[in-house]
Hints:
The chain contains seven helices and nine strands, in the order αβββββββααααββαα. The protein is α+β, with helices and mostly antiparallel strands. Helix 3 packs antiparallel against helix 5 and helix 6 crosses helix 7.
Amino acid sequence: RGSACPDTSVRSLNRLSTTAMEACGCVITSQDERKVVERCGKFEDVLDAGFSCVLPCLCQFVKGAISTRIQMLEINADTKTKDNVFVGIKVAVQYQVNGDSQSIQDAMYKLTNPRAQIESYVLDVVRSSVPKIDLDNVFLEKEEIAASIKEMLGETMGRFGYSILATPVTDIEPNMEVKRAMNEINKAKRLRQAAVDEGEAIKIRSIKEAEAEAARTEIQAKADAEAKFMQGQGIARQRQAIVSGLRDSVNCFKADVAGVDSKQGMDLLLV
């Protein structure tokens, strides 16, 4: 508490000093604001940043200051979707007073509470657009909702000297029961997809194993056929050798024994 007192005293002294200077006709305007001067209660001028002079003796006084900084207003809107689900939608509105004299004048005299005005228009747009959309599509169409809010605010607040820079939808929050149900649905979808993927993997593995088995069977069949072919060639060569040996033996027997023909020689060899 003791440390806050000096700061409060300094701010009070600054306000008193500023008021005293303005009473003397000396006005200092900060870089981030514009000050409005009235004369006899009527708008006279807008003071830019820096040092300015007014004439209190001619009934010129500073009406007030308008900040030219970019300001942000966060608005929470509770509404219902097309499928009767209550959701909370958070919108962050970034706005700023235009720097020209007419806009400063409009902002000072035409609008008492710009934040309340902006909030009322945001609630109106959200509660008129979201009930036309299902819950799942609200998440997909939040850019369209933000664009609708910006268009409505830009047109309305422009008449009061304000520019709407951005209106992003920063959060969409269904109630806890709906969130729990959505999580269960997503969990079931993931489990179902996992089962489908596992079944597909088993199918692919079975196909590949069958293809490998077929390839092994084909290779084995080719090897067996080649072996039988080689065996047949060996038997044929063996028989050709036997026949050739018998022929040579018969020819030799005929040459050594006179009066014996080939058939007799063969019969004698086979006995």
